[in-house]
Amino acid sequence: MEATAGAALGCRDMVGTLRRVLVRRPRSEVDSWELCGWRAAPDPRALATEHEALCALLEDAGAEVVFAEASSDGNLDEIYAFDAVLVVDDAVILLQPSKHVRHGEPGSLATALERLRAPVRGRLEQPAAAEGGDLIRLDADTLLVGFGYRTNEGGVDALSELLPGVELVPFDLPHHQGAGEVLHLLSLLSPVDRDLVVAFPPLLPVRLMQLLEARGIEIVAVPEEELDTMGPNVLALGPRRALVVEGNPVTRRRLEAAGVDVVAYRGKELSKGDGGPTCLTLPLARD
Questions:
Q1: Domain 18-286 in CATH 3.75.10.10
Q2: Domain boundaries of the chain, sorted by first residue
Q3: Strand spans (E) along the chain
Q4: pLDDT (tens digit, 9 = 90+) per residue, 210-246?
């Protein structure tokens, strides 16, 4: 359905029951795939079909799906709507992606956000940079921040000023395969309940491992062979209800063994830009 005025807004964590979610329809023109760093050119028709199926799964889970149309700037990456905006208690913060081709994304979402009557609390301006994939709202009082090639000190400082009362806990992300790789904090860890995350422990910062242990948060470990296929990238539809991308059978079995109800979508085309379910969706309201 299209965005409607008066829609509820607010996310105080990343595991409450998903009630409303924004997605961005994929572009029919995919010529920008190399500029955006996708692994291969997606098939436009299959891309649209997979996206429609993803939206149907979200609706089946009980979420209202709000669509933001593709912009006119030719940026294929904009389908990964989570990176451009941070939804907080009753407002949004427009972020500033580091990737040059994505600089216009926060502004291009303005029309959809205006239709939702979403108050804008603030906007990050260059050289401050932060992308949604590096921001994990662990609970109402804690925001984990991945500091790396996509989110910098200026971004952390700006978010601190815009989020009084919320503790920002930054962690250095690993260099791993370098600055050209799409490696966010959500590439390594996703919450699936208030006491459970799915993660790839070998690349987690020590202090983050210690924080999880201190808070009694258990880890469903992703095997190394499922890291590059986005095993750690999981969208919580609610407590212990998870949406995952197909192709990670070991991670799925481990999630189910931990009591998680798992639904999988086909992402052969959708995820060629290394974006999983958390990247493709911007939760607007959670219980």
A1: yes
A2: 18-286
A3: 18-24, 64-68, 85-87, 92-94, 120-123, 135-139, 142-147, 167-172, 189-193, 196-199, 218-221, 235-238, 241-245, 261-265, 282-286
A4: 999 999 999 999 999 999 999 999 999 999 999 999 9
